[in-house]
Amino acid sequence: MAKATKKQALGRGLSALLNDPSNDIQSVQDKNADKVIGNIVELDIDFIEVNPFQPRTNFSEESLRELASSIKELGIIQPITVRKLGVNKFQLVSGERRFRASKLLNLETIPAYVRIANDQESLEMALVENIQRQDLDPIEIALSYQRLIDEINLTQEQMSERVGKKRSTIANYLRLLKLDPIIQTGMRDGFISMGHGRALITIEDQTIQLDIYEKILSKKLSVRETENLVRDYNAPDNNLSTSKKDDDEAIPKYIKKGINAFSEYFGHKIDVKVSKNGKGKITIPFHSEEDFNRIKKLVEGAK
């Protein structure tokens, strides 16, 4: 108990130091910087803003409520990390779920590690911390890797050192971004695994990718079954691509122009059949009750 009291007192003392306008710490060379950086500080939650560079965008409300319940019972076990922007102004680097859950509980303060970092360093820290999480979907990881390439100018070799992953592993994630956006969404929503996605990458034609994707969902194909199906599509004597091309040529141009918009809107490949007299039928597939209700809301919202 004595140790906990001492730690709280230390935190309050550091907080007072940070709140002193005459000692605005902006770099590691500034006076008293060594007393703040790397120590746990109790910060006023109202002084903290979320990180605009945060690569993670999906936060489950149910998961946040469960975390809030845990924090209420046990407290915050792992402090968040922030960077100092000015007097009484900090920005999250990592720990946004803990921060959001604490706000749900209307906590006034939160334990935090204080870092001194510029925008690029903050982005890199947020991206690397995000990649190392255990509950991310493959597309979210791939997008984080791509941002490190585009915005931090890191090579795959440099990323390998930063995140402790093999270069081949990073390359496999990045290749997922070549999949049709509908398939990427399906992977993010948990309809298919990364293994399914890696099998589909070997097919360049995204129309055929979507055809196989729909078969995976409707027939609940395993990764191995998907790999076999892809192998059949890629076989030299395969006539499936030719027949698909013939079917496409039979579809009027005005439908071809609009069908992609339908598919992107509903998040599935929409099937269209047209008779010789110009009449046709649009089929919207769904793969679960949850998926059906999602599509139903889209239709109702379009009224």
TrEMBL record:
Keywords: Chromosome partition. InterPro entries: Chromosome_partition/occlusion, HTH_ParB/Spo0J, ParB/RepB/Spo0J, ParB/Sulfiredoxin_sf, ParB_N. Residues 41-131 form the ParB-like N-terminal domain. CDD domains: SPO0J_N (cd16393). Belongs to the ParB family. This is ParB/RepB/Spo0J family partition protein. It comes from Flaviramulus multivorans.
